[in-house]
């Protein structure tokens, strides 16, 4: 972001940005300790000491809703007024979920030739078909070509490991020990049909390309569907990992075989391989064929790319002893006393704005 | 070698509900974070960014499938840490007294100043719950967060092991299993809690709660997706169904 004269708007980088940016008057990325004096919450001008207050409080700020705001929020006057004042919603009117979407119908009518602003003729059929004002299911685009259906009979899905939900990076030395390589999970029956067993290497092929991965046999999956962990496979050198890291040698991504574009239509135009209304990428539409690798093939994932250039000049540590400096048992003044933030949801009550109720849900560990 | 002291009757431990655990590893990473700065610090990692990353963890989750004779299968997420046994073979085998059980609450600990790293305790433990730190040359293990559960710097409700604080599903409970009237003892009683590998005769304090039996109605396949309404609502649903087709 730049100022009108072209100068950098937040020369202090991200810390500067999250402290000082306001998307609208008095509304910024962080809700706690706003205002010049840091005495306002949710709305208020930027506070130059805001990050320091977050650090003081273990990165957490909290305020609970008044009891009258806690139910039926879509039609709760107190909540809607509060949320409007906070800048979360534009109006205080009740938010009614509509089965029939007038917005979608407007697109469809445009596709039918109504109105002053009309879409290109070539796109109108698509608008008519997919911008339905009522919820619809439509056949995945990649399955419209029946020849491909028979050549690629297996659905392939990916999901992110639960332990990586708050840290996606492969540079996390602990999470790497939990999952540093992924396998393609398939039902025992499918594995038997394909002549595969646990640990075999196989080519996973889609109309767009092929990727090599290792098989894991399970029974808790549909026999015509395979799945793998997403975001484990990485290019060699990525995240500053060693070139021999399992993430680069054994981990694989289905991304390589998912096309960003659909096959060309008659005039050569290629639509995005995504939902026409939301733009959501069609990851789960992937269909594949699976074939056991030949015995003389390298037991390593493919495709491989040249190792990424390292930014760090110092060698990677061979041993990590995070926490050794805490060993003495003596209080370390700059670290303050022991505090726990995970699962410690009520610790900061006294420091906050007050007027919120104790939640009966969190009364401690052994109840 | 090292004697088990006479118990005071208090037996602090965990109750782990296998029916609720989803295998997310929140407990294992939280454990690692607390304990790498705690009593046994650090929980060393070797080759952390290389080809074979390994390290010391006091709590691990093993995930596996079991298949019943009828062909149905279940995924089981099995969190495993020291069970703080009443008859702890890891203690009696210790040649230096470094491995010991506390009389006042039953917690099994290792004194790292007197541990010689002989690993006899890890061979004696049938659960594989001990963790050898090859960098420090000593044995380490779950301390039941002894430096957290009695820590008066923390608010009272935080004085539970880190794994219990972190569990997002409430699959882990902490308390006095020596007290028949405690919440954890009642939980074990009501859910049929069991000992891991009782044939090893270690009398583990930690208990596990079993998976609930799957109940599949005989006519599930034919009734599951049918709306149970009639009259106007029925007509509305039929209209929605038609619109969706």
Please characterize this protein's 3D structure.
The complex is a heterodimer of chains A (367) and B (245). Chain A has a six-stranded mixed sheet. Chain A is built from nine helices and seven strands, in the order ααααααβαβαβββαββ. Chain A has 367 residues and is an alpha/beta fold. The longest helix of chain A is centred in the first third of the chain and has 10 residues, at 102-111. Helices cover 17% and strands 11% of the residues of chain A. Residues 343-367 of chain A have low confidence and may be disordered. In chain A, strand 3 (201-206) and strand 4 form a beta hairpin. Chain A is globular. The longest helix of chain B has 14 residues, at 231-244. In chain B, the strands form five sheets. Chain B has a three-stranded mixed sheet with strand order 10-1-11, with helices on one face. Helices cover 22% and strands 19% of the residues of chain B. By secondary structure, chain B is an alpha+beta fold. Chain B has helices at 26-35, 89-92, 120-124, 146-149, 162-166, 183-191, 220-223, 231-244; strands at 12-17, 45-46, 54-55, 60-67, 73-80, 99-101, 108-110, 131-133, 138-140, 172-176, 207-209. Chain B has a single domain (12-209), classed as 2-Layer Sandwich (Alpha-Beta Plaits), CATH 3.30.70.20. In chain B, strand 6 and strand 7 (108-110) form a beta hairpin. Chain B is built from eight helices and eleven strands. At the A-B interface, helix 7 and strand 7 of A face helix 1, strand 2, strand 3, strand 5 and helix 5 of B.
């Amino acid at each position: 972001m730049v100022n009108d004269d072209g100068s950098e708007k937040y020369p202090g980088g991200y810390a500067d940005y999250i402290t000082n940016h306001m998307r609208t008057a008095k509304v910024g990325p962080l809700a706690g300790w706003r205002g010049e004096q840091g005495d306002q919450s949710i709305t208020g001008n930027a506070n130059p000491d805001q990050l320091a207050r977050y650090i003081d409080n273990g990165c957490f700020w909290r305020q609970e809703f008044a009891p009258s705001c806690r139910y039926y929020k879509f039609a709760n006057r107190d909540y809607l007024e509060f949320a409007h004042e906070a800048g979360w919603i534009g109006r205080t009117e009740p938010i009614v979920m509509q089965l029939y979407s007038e917005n979608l119908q407007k697109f469809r009518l445009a596709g039918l030739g109504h109105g002053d602003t009309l879409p290109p003729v070539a796109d109108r059929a698509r608008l008519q078909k997919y911008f339905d004002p009522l919820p619809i299911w439509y056949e995945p685009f990649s399955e419209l070509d029946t020849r491909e259906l028979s050549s690629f009979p297996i659905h392939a899905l990916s999901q992110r490991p639960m332990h990586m939900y708050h840290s996606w990076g492969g540079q996390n030395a602990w999470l790497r020990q939990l999952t540093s390589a992924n396998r393609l999970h398939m039902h025992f029956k499918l594995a038997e049909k394909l002549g595969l067993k646990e640990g075999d290497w196989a080519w996973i092929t889609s109309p767009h390309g092929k990727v090599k991965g290792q098989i894991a046999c399970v029974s808790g999956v549909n026999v015509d569907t395979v799945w793998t962990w997403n975001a484990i496979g990485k290019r060699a050198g990525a995240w500053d990992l060693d070139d021999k890291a399992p993430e680069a040698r054994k981990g694989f991504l289905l991304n390589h075989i998912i096309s960003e574009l659909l096959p060309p239509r008659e005039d050569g135009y290629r639509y995005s391989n995504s939902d026409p209304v939301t733009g959501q990428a069609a990851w789960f539409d992937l269909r594949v064929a699976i074939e056991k690798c030949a015995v003389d093939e390298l037991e390593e994932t493919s495709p491989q790319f040249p190792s990424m250039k390292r930014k760090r000049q110092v060698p990677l540590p061979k041993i990590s002893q995070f926490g050794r400096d805490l060993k003495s048992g003596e209080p370390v003044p700059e670290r303050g006393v022991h505090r726990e933030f995970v699962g410690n949801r009520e610790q900061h009550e006294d420091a906050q704005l007050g007027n919120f109720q104790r939640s009966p849900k969190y009364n401690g560990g052994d109840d | 070698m090292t004697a088990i002291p006479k118990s005071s009757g208090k037996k602090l431990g965990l109750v782990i509900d296998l029916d609720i655990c989803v295998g997310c590893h929140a407990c294992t990473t939280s454990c690692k974070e607390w304990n790498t700065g705690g009593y046994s610090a650090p929980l060393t990692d070797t080759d952390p960014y290389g080809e074979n990353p390994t390290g010391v963890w006091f709590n691990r989750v093993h995930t596996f499938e079991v298949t019943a004779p009828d062909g149905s299968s279940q995924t089981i997420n099995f969190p495993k840490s020291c069970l703080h046994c009443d008859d702890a073979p890891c203690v009696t085998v210790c040649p230096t007294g470094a491995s010991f059980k506390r009389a006042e609450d039953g917690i099994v600990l290792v004194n790292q100043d007197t541990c010689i790293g002989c690993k006899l305790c890890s061979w004696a433990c049938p659960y594989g719950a001990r963790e050898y730190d090859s960098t420090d040359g000593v044995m380490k293990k779950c301390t039941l967060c002894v430096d957290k559960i009695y820590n008066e710097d923390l608010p009272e409700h935080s004085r539970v092991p880190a794994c219990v604080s972190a569990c997002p599903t409430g699959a882990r409970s902490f308390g006095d299993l020596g007290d028949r009237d405690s919440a954890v003892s009642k939980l074990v009683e009501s859910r049929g809690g069991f000992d891991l590998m009782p044939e090893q005769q270690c009398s583990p304090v930690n208990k596990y709660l079993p998976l609930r039996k799957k109940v599949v109605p005989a006519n599930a396949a034919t009734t599951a997706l049918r709306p149970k309404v009639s009259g106007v609502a029925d007509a509305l649903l039929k209209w929605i169904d038609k619109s969706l087709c």
